[in-house]
Amino acid sequence: MRRLSSSYTVFYKRVLPFVWLLLPLLSAWLLWNIPAHAQQPRWPALFPMLVIPAIGLVLFKKLIFDLVDEVWLDGEQLLVKSRGLQARIALADVVNVNTTSMTNPRRITLMLRSDSRFGRNVSFIPASPRGFASAFKPDPIAVELIGRVDALRQVRR
After folding, report:
1. Are 97 and 146 in contact (CB under 8 A)?
2. What is the band of 124 on the pLDDT scale with cuts at 50, 70, 90?
3. Is 2.30.29.210 the CATH number for 70-156?
4. Are 122 and 113 in contact (CB under 8 A)?
């Protein structure tokens, strides 16, 4: 069994949102509690610190919170784990493999023929090489999954 998903998924799903929300709110609280000099208004300085968490929540909901925790390749099946649940998905049930290249983190989304425990689309962060040069190359895990799914389709014909 080989792990396809990144070990940094926990950081992206749990630690980063906490820090993203905590730091601006903590800064706003500190700014609010500093004694005011003369009659300087505080709201112009507080406004960005309240908007940043709101923007972060929207981005995290769209890009991060739908990711599964782990994806393992076990022969012709995928073992998918998230939030204490797990499901086995046959590669033959994968209709499409979609990948993003110019986002951080990269994502691979598997579109399935029917609903699984995690829905019809299963997204994860691949355990792929990082760096500037790899940003312009296709993700090796996505290329491998596309090849395996295509080979299974050829056998079924």
Report:
1. yes
2. very high
3. yes
4. no
Read off the amino acid at residue 12.
Y
Paired tokens of 74 = 């076990």
Question: Is the preceding omega at residue 105 within 30 degrees of 0, hence cis?
Answer: yes
95 neighbors 121 (Cβ within 8 angstroms): no
Q: What is the residue type of 75?
A: G
Query: Do 126 and 98 touch, CB atoms closer than 8 A?
Result: no
Provide the 3-class DSSP secondary structure of residue 110: strand
Q: Could you tell me the two tokens for 24?
A: 């601006």
Rounded distance between C-alpha atoms, residue 122 and residue 135, angstroms: 22
Q: To which H or E segment does residue 44 belong? A: helix 43-63
Range with lowest mean pLDDT among 32-46, 54-68, 79-93, 115-129: 32-46
pTM across the whole model:
0.82
Cα R_g (the chain), whole angstroms: 21
Question: Where are the strands (E) in the chain, listed by range?
Answer: 2-3, 70-74, 77-82, 85-90, 94-99, 108-116, 119-124
